[in-house]
Amino acid sequence: MNYWPLLGVAVIVVGFALRFNAVPVVVGAALVSGLLAGLPLPALLALLGQSFVSARMLLLFVLTLPAIGLLERAGLREHAQRWMARLQGMTLARLLIGYLLLRQLLAMLGLTGVAGPAQTVRPLLAPMAEAAAEKILPTLDDADRDELRAVAAATDNIGRFFGEDVFIALGAVLLIQGFYAQHGIVLTPLAIALWALPTAIAAFVIQSVRVWLVQRRLQRRAARVHAGEGS
Amino acid sequence: MLRIEYAYWLIAAFLIYAGWRNLRDRHLWHAAFWLVLGVLFGGGDYVLAQQAAGNALPAQLAGAAVIVLALLAPRLGRLAHPESSSPAQRLASAVRLGHRLFVPALLIPLVTLLVALCGAYMVIDGHAVFAAPQMTLTGLALACVVALFAASRVAQVPMREGVAEGRRLLDAIGWAALLPLLLAALGQVFTQSGVGAAIAGLAGMLLPTGSALACLLAFALGMVLFTVIMGNAFAAFPVMMAGIGLPLLIRQYGADPAILGSMGMLCGYCGTLLTPMAADFNLVPAALLELRSPYGVIRAQVASALAILATTIVLMWLLVFR
Q1: Quick one: A33 and A106 in the same domain?
Q2: For residue B292, which residues of chain A lie inside 8 Å, CB to CB?
Q3: Cβ–Cβ gap B66/A49 under 8 Å
Q4: Which of B54, B118, B126, B168 has its CA 20 to 30 A from that of A139?
């Protein structure tokens, strides 16, 4: 067994740890692994180029930018924030947990591309989460805003990941079924998908608690600010 | 018929526009970066067609272009374009337009949903409107165009202003936009150079085979670790399954394959939440949301990921050996 290609993994680990620019680190790792595996340079270049253009769908999110940029210039975020501030009973936790549930249910139906960081989090969920947090603590600093946006993105990811495995016709379930079929174990997609449900429920509960803890921490800080003003 | 290739050409046009605008503004490194990427996107179908026909030269040129992009990326500093509108202007516009602003934003998910659900049944004159491969993503591209049109109607601004705003956001995201594609390519190179097999070989030497619990833990944590390295649970699954899952857990200890496969994959997903290698889920959102740390989203996910992982491992231990 040729273990030298593993040095490509080492390039990644060291490069990310030293906080080099990630693009040359990743390309360098690919060149190191490929050359150490004995691939001739022309074949390696062709493999790199072909794999890159085969993954073009991963840049599709940039097509959302013109519409979102235009709407943001016309005040979309400001309007989302003003609307959140007016909505009685819509708290930070209810907003994010409601979104989590919706995202998980959509993913369970195989509709993962409907929402996402560019489609829904940046234009809608993140500004609403900030506005909901401002209702609790009006004096948010930049670090708080970063954390709220990050929690909104995390909620989107977790809802997607732990919903999509429940859908029978999506990549993960078909990959599992295909692997077993190659090795002589025949399973229906439904039998595999059903066993993703316990973790899906656990993920929903865990992320909901996490969101609720973020909200409680803001409430406690607000209470301290309030007490400080009162004395 | 609408095909996903049209979306790639649209992206290519947008990237070339961004490059051209940067050229006019004398941001030469940004201009070169977006222009090279735009040409790669526009020529992608040609590259794949020629490769399939046995001509490797275009693919080799594309590989060389990827290396050029890697050399250009460190030169792209953060390019903060001046805001094209003041907070007061945006607030006034928000008050004037109100809920109408939500309509184009919601059109993006709604049109995508419509195409995903009904695209297969849309037929004009005996021709399907949407090609079957990647129909949801074709729908997303269409939704973006529809939303831009609606946004320019609602805001009473010409569409080219929207494209200019889009370019501003693209420059703010910068090279991070490229990482998902590069990591997908890296995964392919790793597979071809036998990195997965080498890791499985190393794991085989260290592996405890003495108890079912030790094997199960090695399988679950191996899924996480391998996913963290490769950035993708799909790459980890066949390796860990062939190394530990099938020979030891299923054949020797009689684990239930459906439960082991499903929950093992979900352990990998917990790894996806933890790794910068899954750039499209972790680094791109951080750039899109303009977080100051590129690892902000990962930090927000660590606690949940570990709790979900622990729960899944306990569930597996309770369920797979029934």
Answers
A1: no
A2: 142, 146
A3: yes
A4: B168
Write the DSSP string, A44-75: HHHHHHHHHHHTGGGGGGGGGHHHHHHHHHTT
User: Cβ distance A36 to A5 under 8 Å?
Assistant: yes
Residues A1, B197: contact at Cβ < 8 Å?
yes
Asked whether residue A32 carries a pLDDT value surpassing 80, the answer given is yes
A vs B, Cβ pairs < 8 A, gives: 444
- How many structural domains are present in chain A? 2
Domain carrying residue A158: 76-230
Q: Which of A52-56, B126-130, B251-255 has the lowest mean pLDDT?
A: B126-130
Residues A90, A181, single domain; the answer is: yes
What does the DSSP assignment read for A155-214? HHHHHHHHHHTTSTTSHHHHHHHHHHHHTT----HHHHHHTTHHHHHHHHHHHHHHHHHH
Complex ipTM: 0.89
The token pair at A68 is 């979102």
Question: Do A91 and A155 sit in the same domain of this protein?
Answer: yes
Q: Which candidate, B243, B307, B233, B235, places its Cα nearest to that of B264?
A: B233
B270 SS3 class: helix
Instruction: State the CB neighbour count (10 A cutoff) for residue B322.
Output: 8
Q: Tokens for A17?
A: 């740890």
Q: Are B282 and B231 in contact (CB under 8 A)?
A: no
Give a yes or no: residue A137 inside a domain. Answer: yes
Q: Which of B197, B265, B260, B280 is nearest to B233 (CA)?
A: B265
Tokens linked to A228: 């400080």
The closest CB to that of A48, out of B7, B66, B98, belongs to B66
pLDDT in tens, B89-127: 999 999 999 899 999 988 988 898 888 888 888 888 888
Decide if B104 contacts B96 (C-beta within 8 A): no
